[in-house]
């Protein structure tokens, strides 16, 4: 059996930043992680462990202090549309309408106007935003905003989807709904996803594998296979004995770290 | 639930009609004040040496309007106001954003700005008259220098305050470092910039009138001062009314343009 291809490879990644008070803080210390092509991998860990920082390093919007991150065996240098980033607080351009936001990446890629309109229309339908094309983000609810952000990211078709607690600011019902929709999109579009979350159940539900990080300075403590290779994602296995066991296993790993930090 | 798409379409119209209906209601206290003014002066309760009758002020206003005197001075003031204000806005926004983007410029200008910020800008009037004479130029320069600080500061803060996640999103989607300025920094800074320039607009009228009173022989500020010296109180009040009206209209116009530009800030019931 052939090993699945590695999409993102992080080796010995460390990150030091200067705090506002002037001292240097070690946020990440030797993170080793391999994310396979088309895999859904979540990272959980105590607050402040550097999981978001790690994601920003993969996105290339922060500079790495030590070690290396490769995508398809090529070192990552700076941000690019091959790695889309979705934020907890959406980061929509408030001065652009829904359709303006979704088309932004396509404009920057030099996609022609008719093609942009075509692609945006399709995505708007896909994420359930029909009728809201010309509304500004300020007039949307959190769930709608995150749909726009998701559509904006999918519009330029990145190979890797980096998600920084994307549903963390949503209410419980919207959150469940968005999780399902994300899984649908993921199985349909086949992308490599790195998903940051606080919510262990969310991680187990969504992911093929869950990586648990230690308290700061963050390292990968353990990686747990949450979905047997080849099995379909979906609501079906929630509340099964196996699901609950996985949640408990990961939660106890996270808990030890929360207690430390 | 969420505000529908149709909502944003008639927001403007929706706001306009109640505003018009409200106009009388909102400004009706003025009518009582004017009536009290007229009554107090007509009965001699307040001597006319101190306060002219309101009706006399209106008569003076109409007389000066017909003679063209008022218009001539008003145009002179308007020209100074427009030139001084617009140049300070253009220069101030550029400087503020440049300072936010380039560390060197910030380090260079910040001490100067800190020093000048608390200076009452009217103190600049005499020196500018000495340098630039008593004509248009010294007044324009006073307005320019007096207004530029709030514009620089608000543009600087606006540009610095743009959410880094917006910048990151743009960079990821392929916006180059240069284009970032137009695509993200300036639109993101606009709300701050526009409220800073509104403050500057108010300051500009103060400086306009102040500088016109101190030197020269044109402008509504000069006219006000001249008529008070001449003892023509009704005429003086007519000039002040004109100034008030211009300032009021300028601010209303500004607000309207600002709302138009910042239409995206309208919030729905989320």
UniProtKB/TrEMBL annotation, chain A:
Stretches assigned to the ABC transporter domain: 8-240
Record bears the keyword Transmembrane: no
A Pfam entry, by short name: ABC_tran
Alphabetically ordered keywords of this record: ATP-binding, Nucleotide-binding, Transport
CDD domains, per database record: ABC_NrtD_SsuB_transporters (cd03293)
UniProt superkingdom: Bacteria
Stored SMART domains: AAA
GO molecular function: ATP binding; ATP hydrolysis activity
Name of the protein: ABC transporter ATP-binding protein
Taxonomic lineage: Bacteria, Pseudomonadati, Nitrospinota/Tectimicrobiota group, Candidatus Tectimicrobiota
TrEMBL record, chain B:
SUPFAM superfamilies per UniProt: MetI-like
Family: Belongs to the binding-protein-dependent transport system permease family.
Membrane topology designation: Multi-pass membrane protein
GO biological process: transmembrane transport
Gene3D superfamilies from the UniProt entry: MetI-like
Transmembrane segments annotated in the record for this chain: 21-46, 82-100, 112-134, 140-159, 180-210, 230-250
Transferase in keyword set: no
The species this protein was found in: Tectimicrobiota bacterium
Alphabetized InterPro entries for the sequence: MetI-like, MetI-like_sf
Protein name from the UniProt record: ABC transporter permease
Cellular location(s): Cell membrane
Sequence ranges assigned to domain ABC transmembrane type-1 in this UniProt record: 74-254
Keywords assigned: Cell membrane, Membrane, Transmembrane, Transmembrane helix, Transport
GO cellular component, one term: plasma membrane
Annotated signal peptide: none
Main location (coarse class): membrane
């Amino acid at each position: 059996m052939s090993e699945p291809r590695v999409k993102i490879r992080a080796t010995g990644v460390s990150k030091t930043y200067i705090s506002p008070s002037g001292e240097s803080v070690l946020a990440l210390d030797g993170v080793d992680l391999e994310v396979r092509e088309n895999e859904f991998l979540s990272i959980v860990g105590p607050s402040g462990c550097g999981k978001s920082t790690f994601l920003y390093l993969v996105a290339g919007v922060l500079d790495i202090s030590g070690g290396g991150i490769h995508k398809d065996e090529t070192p990552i240098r700076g941000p690019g549309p091959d790695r889309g980033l979705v934020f907890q607080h959406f980061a929509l351009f408030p001065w652009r309408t829904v359709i303006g936001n979704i088309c932004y990446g396509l404009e920057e890629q030099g996609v022609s106007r008719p093609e942009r309109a075509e692609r945006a229309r399709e995505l708007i339908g896909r994420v359930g935003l029909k009728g809201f094309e010309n509304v500004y983000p300020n007039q949307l609810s959190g769930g709608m905003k995150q749909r726009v952000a998701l559509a904006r990211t999918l519009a330029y078709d990145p190979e890797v989807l980096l998600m920084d607690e994307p549903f963390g600011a949503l209410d419980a019902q919207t959150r469940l709904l968005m999780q399902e929709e994300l899984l649908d999109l993921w199985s349909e579009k086949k992308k490599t996803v790195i998903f940051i979350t606080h919510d262990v159940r969310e991680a187990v539900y969504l992911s093929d594998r869950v990586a648990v990080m230690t308290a700061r300075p963050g390292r990968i403590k353990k990686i747990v296979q949450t979905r047997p290779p080849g099995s379909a994602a979906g609501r079906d296995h929630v509340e099964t004995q196996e699901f609950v066991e996985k949640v408990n296993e990961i939660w106890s790993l996270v808990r030890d770290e929360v207690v430390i930090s | 639930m969420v505000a529908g798409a149709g909502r944003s379409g008639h927001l403007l119209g929706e706001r306009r009609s109640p505003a018009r209906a409200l106009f009388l209601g909102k400004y009706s206290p003025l009518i009582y004040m004017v009536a009290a003014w007229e009554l107090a002066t007509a009965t001699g309760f307040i001597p006319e040496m101190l306060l002219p009758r309101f009706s006399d002020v209106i008569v003076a206003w109409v007389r000066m309007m017909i003679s063209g005197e008022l218009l001539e001075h008003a145009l002179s003031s308007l020209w100074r106001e427009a030139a001084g204000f617009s140049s300070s806005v253009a220069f101030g926004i550029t400087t503020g954003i440049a300072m936010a983007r380039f560390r060197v410029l910030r380090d260079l200008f910040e001490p100067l700005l800190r020093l000048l910020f608390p200076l009452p800008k009217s103190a600049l009037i005499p020196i500018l008259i000495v340098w630039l004479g008593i004509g248009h130029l010294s007044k324009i320069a006073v307005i320019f220098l007096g207004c530029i600080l709030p514009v620089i500061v608000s543009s600087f803060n606006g540009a610095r305050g743009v959410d880094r996640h917006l910048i990151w999103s743009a960079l990821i989607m392929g916006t180059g470092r240069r284009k970032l300025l137009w695509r993200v920094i300036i639109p993101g800074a606009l709300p701050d910039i526009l409220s800073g320039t509104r403050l500057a607009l108010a300051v500009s009228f103060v400086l306009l009138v102040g500088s016109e009173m101190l030197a020269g022989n044109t402008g509504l500020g000069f006219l006000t001062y001249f008529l008070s010296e001449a003892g023509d109180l009704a005429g003086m009040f007519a000039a002040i009314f004109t100034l008030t009206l211009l300032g009021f209209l300028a601010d209303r116009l500004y607000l309207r343009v600002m709302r138009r530009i910042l239409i995206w800030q309208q919030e729905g019931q989320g």
